[in-house]
């Protein structure tokens, strides 16, 4: 039986000026070349910190484009802005910020069929945004799900759909908001969504929610021990490799000694955000 290997890699946070994550990225590019997965989900937060930093976008896109196997990218909050009501650094997702992502990476929602499975990537930053793009994505998703009603689906988002349960009411930058979550759940209610892969929290967790496997891929390098939410999880660097075979899926959390954690806790404490960190201090971390 044909099997398909899909790599879920995320939170690269790349910048030429503040290059502390580039060494780990170089390793990733070489390792992907060696492993030759059938597809790579690039899980978002390609850029260092500021969604309006044009140079970081150009550099990050050039770096991601070094991947030599088929790949698609998801938008992260650092790429297109964050969700209401308390977006990171006050930078809300907008048409303008999203447009830059589209010009670099193509559509921010996409489907890829691998045997019996359909993989669907969504832009969760526009969930509950009330932007026209939210409605367009929902219409597109409903059509893609209808075509695949009897077969398994793997969804990929940037932020986790929830921290613990689908009915939780907490509003946090760490996960999709309750309104965004309920809109998505309504859309997928009649479909066979088996797993939801996400990133964003820079840590691995996996748990079941109403028979859907929630699988959080870790970061390839940048860690912030100062983040208090969400609690727990495995903050070691790495990625998730999925193997899709028939109607089954297996996944493996992979770590590599070459992926050295880059701890930005002190810098964020001192400078509030990585965009304000003197470049020399970033370079000293790598
Ligand atoms: Fe991130
Ligand atoms: Fe993120």
TrEMBL record:
Residues 5-203 form the Calcineurin-like phosphoesterase domain. Keywords: Hydrolase. Coiled coil: none annotated. SUPFAM superfamilies: Metallo-dependent phosphatases (SSF56300). One of its GO terms (molecular function) is hydrolase activity. Transmembrane segments: none annotated. Pfam families: Metallophos. Its EC number is 3.1.-.-. Gene3D superfamilies: 3.60.21.10. This is Metallophosphoesterase family protein.
């Amino acid at each position: 039986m044909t099997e398909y290997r899909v790599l879920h890699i995320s939170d690269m946070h790349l910048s030429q000026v503040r290059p502390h994550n580039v060494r780990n990225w170089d390793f990733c590019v070489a390792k992907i070349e060696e492993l030759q997965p059938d597809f790579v989900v690039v899980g978002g937060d390609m850029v260092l910190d500021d969604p309006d930093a044009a140079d970081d976008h150009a550099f990050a896109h050039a770096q991601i484009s070094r991947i030599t196997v088929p790949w698609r990218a998801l938008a992260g909050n650092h790429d297109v802005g964050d969700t209401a009501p308390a977006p990171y650094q006050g930078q809300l997702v907008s048409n303008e910020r999203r447009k830059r992502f589209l010009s670099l990476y193509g559509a921010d929602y996409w489907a890829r069929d691998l045997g019996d499975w359909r993989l669907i990537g969504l832009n969760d930053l526009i969930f509950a945004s009330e932007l026209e793009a939210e409605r367009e994505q929902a219409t597109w998703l409903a059509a893609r799900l209808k075509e695949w009603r009897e077969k398994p689906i793997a969804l990929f988002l940037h932020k986790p759909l929830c921290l613990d349960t689908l009915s939780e009411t907490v509003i946090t930058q760490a996960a999709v908001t309750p309104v965004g979550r309920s809109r998505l759940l309504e859309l997928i209610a009649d479909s066979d969504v088996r797993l939801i892969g996400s990133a964003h929290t820079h840590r691995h967790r996996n748990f079941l929610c109403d028979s859907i496997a929630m699988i959080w891929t870790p970061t390839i390098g940048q860690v912030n021990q100062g983040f208090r939410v969400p609690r727990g999880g495995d903050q070691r660097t790495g990625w998730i490799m999925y193997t899709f075979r028939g109607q089954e899926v297996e996944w493996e959390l992979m770590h590599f000694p070459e992926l050295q954690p880059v701890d930005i806790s002190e810098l964020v404490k001192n400078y509030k955000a990585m965009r304000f960190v003197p470049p020399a201090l970033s370079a000293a971390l790598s």
